[in-house]
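Q: What residues go here?
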C-alpha cells in the first residue's frame, strides 16, 4: 500500500485549488501527445528529464507506466491508466473539500502577513471558560462584534497548573493559566507548590475569572453526598485529577481543612485528564463522585455540590505585559461581550477581567519588612518601587 503525502506552496498569485502529483501531469502529457518528446515539449521539460522521471516513478511504484512498441505511439500501461482514473475520481469527489482546505490554509497564513493580527500561546490548567474565550476571539476577528480589536488568535495548550507556569518560565508560552482557592492561607499546599515558581516583580497576574469547584455526583445524589466527609462515610468511588493539576491541589487543601487525607477516599489514586473526563466517569457509573467545575457536571446531566470558590489566574512575565498580543488579550477580557458571556456560564463570574492585579495581594505569601536603619519615609518609597 503506497501512502499519500500532501504539500502546498506559498506565493503572491492566487490559483485554483488543486492537489496533484507531478506524475499525473507526465502521464496525461504522454497520453495526449503519444510520445516522450511530445510530452516534454508540452510540459517545457527536456526529453531526458521526462524519460528519467518516468523511469524513477516506475521503480518507486514497482509497475510499468508506459508501453512503447516500435512504430507505434507511446501509450499508458494498464497500471498507468488506473492511476489516471484514480486521479479523476479523487478530483471529482474531493474538489469541494480541497477548496475548503486551501481557504483554511490561506486564512491561517494570512495572520503571518497581517500586522494587526496577534498570536498568543497560552499553557493553562483545563478550563471551559478559556475554550469559550478562544471562540470569542475568533468571533471578534470575523467582525461579529463591535469592539475595536486587532485579530487575536489564542493557541491554548491545556496541561496541569504547575506545568503551565513552568512552560511560562522556560519561555514556551507567553501566558500561563492556573487556579487557587480564594485567599489561600500562608503555609498551605498552594504556597509550597506555586511560591517557588512565581516571583513578585518578575511575574504579573491578569484578572480572568472566579469559578466554583464542587463534587459531581449522579442525578438526584443517591448517596446523599454533601461534603468530603460524606465521601468517606459512604465509601463512594472517587475519581481524582493527576499530579500537577490545580484541581488536585485544591482537593488536597480541602481535605487538609477537614482533617482528612487522600487515603480516606476510595479511588483517590484513580485519575482522569480533565473535568469533562471526570464528569464522564461519574455519568457512566464507573465512579460515584469527582471534584470539578459546574459546567462539566451540567454537560453530563449530573448533580453538583459546590464546595469552594477559587480564582482562575492568568500570569505573564512583566516584560510581556505591554506587548501587542498581551494588550490585545487584555482588551478582549475587558470587552462587554466577553464579560456577559462569562457571567452566563454556570459557576463563573468575571473577576477583574483584563486588569493587571497584585500578585502579593492575591497570593499573600511574600512578606517584605524594612531594615531597622531605614526611616519610615524611605521604606514607603522602597515599597512603592517594589510594587510598581
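A:
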Amino acid at each position: 500500500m503506497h501512502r499519500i503525502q500532501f504539500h502546498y506552496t506559498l506565493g503572491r498569485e492566487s490559483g485554483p485549488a488543486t492537489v496533484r502529483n507531478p506524475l499525473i501531469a507526465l502521464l496525461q502529457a504522454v497520453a495526449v501527445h503519444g510520445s516522450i518528446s511530445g510530452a516534454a515539449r508540452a510540459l517545457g521539460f527536456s526529453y531526458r528529464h521526462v524519460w528519467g522521471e518516468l523511469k524513477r516513478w516506475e521503480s518507486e511504484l514497482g509497475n510499468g507506466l508506459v508501453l512503447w512498441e516500435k512504430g507505434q505511439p507511446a501509450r499508458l500501461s494498464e497500471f498507468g491508466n488506473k492511476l489516471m482514473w484514480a486521479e479523476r475520481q479523487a478530483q471529482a469527489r474531493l474538489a469541494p473539500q480541497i477548496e475548503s482546505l486551501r481557504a483554511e490554509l490561506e486564512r491561517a497564513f494570512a495572520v503571518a502577513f497581517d500586522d494587526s493580527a496577534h498570536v498568543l500561546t497560552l499553557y493553562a490548567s483545563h478550563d471551559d471558560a478559556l475554550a469559550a474565550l478562544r471562540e470569542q476571539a475568533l468571533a471578534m476577528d470575523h467582525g461579529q462584534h463591535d469592539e475595536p480589536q486587532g485579530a487575536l488568535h489564542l493557541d491554548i495548550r491545556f496541561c496541569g497548573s504547575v506545568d503551565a507556569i513552568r512552560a511560562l518560565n522556560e519561555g514556551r508560552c507567553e501566558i500561563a493559566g492556573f487556579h487557587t482557592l480564594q485567599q489561600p492561607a500562608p503555609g498551605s499546599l498552594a504556597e509550597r507548590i506555586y511560591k517557588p515558581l512565581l516571583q513578585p516583580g518578575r511575574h504579573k497576574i491578569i484578572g480572568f475569572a472566579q469559578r466554583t469547584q464542587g463534587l459531581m455526583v449522579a442525578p438526584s445524589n443517591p448517596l446523599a453526598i454533601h461534603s468530603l466527609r460524606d465521601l468517606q462515610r459512604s465509601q463512594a468511588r472517587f475519581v481524582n485529577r493527576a499530579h500537577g493539576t490545580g484541581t488536585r491541589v485544591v482537593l488536597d487543601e480541602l481535605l487538609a481543612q477537614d482533617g482528612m487525607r487522600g487515603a480516606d477516599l476510595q479511588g483517590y489514586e484513580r485519575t482522569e485528564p480533565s473535568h469533562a473526563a471526570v464528569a464522564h466517569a461519574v455519568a457512566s457509573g464507573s465512579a460515584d463522585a469527582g471534584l470539578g467545575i459546574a459546567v462539566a457536571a451540567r454537560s453530563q446531566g449530573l448533580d453538583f455540590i459546590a464546595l469552594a470558590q477559587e480564582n482562575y489566574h492568568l500570569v505573564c512575565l512583566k516584560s510581556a505585559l505591554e506587548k501587542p498580543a498581551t494588550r490585545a488579550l487584555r482588551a478582549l477580557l475587558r470587552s462587554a461581550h466577553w464579560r456577559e458571556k462569562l457571567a452566563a456560564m454556570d459557576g463563573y463570574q468575571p473577576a477583574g477581567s483584563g486588569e493587571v492585579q497584585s500578585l502579593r495581594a492575591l497570593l499573600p505569601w511574600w512578606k517584605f519588612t524594612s531594615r531597622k536603619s531605614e526611616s519610615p519615609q524611605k521604606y514607603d518609597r522602597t515599597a512603592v518601587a517594589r510594587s510598581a
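A: Context that may help when evaluating the design: The domain at 118-362 is CATH 3.40.190.290 (D-Maltodextrin-Binding Protein; domain 2). DSSP finds 15 helices and twelve strands in the chain.
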